[in-house]
Amino acid sequence: MKNKIFLISFYSLLVGCASWKYPNWEQVHVVKSVYKQPCEFKQEEVCSDADSFSAECTVWYKKRATIYKANTFVNEVTKAEKLAAKYYYCGPGIPLYNQKPLLAWTIRHKSDPALTYSDYEKAVYECNYQADVANIRRQQA
Q: Which among 52, 71, 107, 138 is placed 20 to 30 Å from 20, CA to CA?
């Protein structure tokens, strides 16, 4: 009986201990950007949790980063309004990461947050096109 209790408790510790399955996951850093830092890109993932902005997703990202040999990750919002993580390995001797972050180039409309800068450019193009059509029709009349 004592052996069964010992084996059950040992097995639960072995399977349930995240430090064994994901070594050094506590040392994974969460940063806002790795732009111009000595880092190399490893992988990108999206948390499947319904609330991807939850603390559980952050812990999950830290654990998953160890699988890809990454020590840093950056949270970014995807087009589907989900929180994605990009994993990086950062350390000395790595060339500076020069890809600019996506969020720095995204402009949101105050009344409709789903609109981006490219939507704005399309609307300006359409407006200019309609103005040109009106000018041509005025000249023909």
A: 52
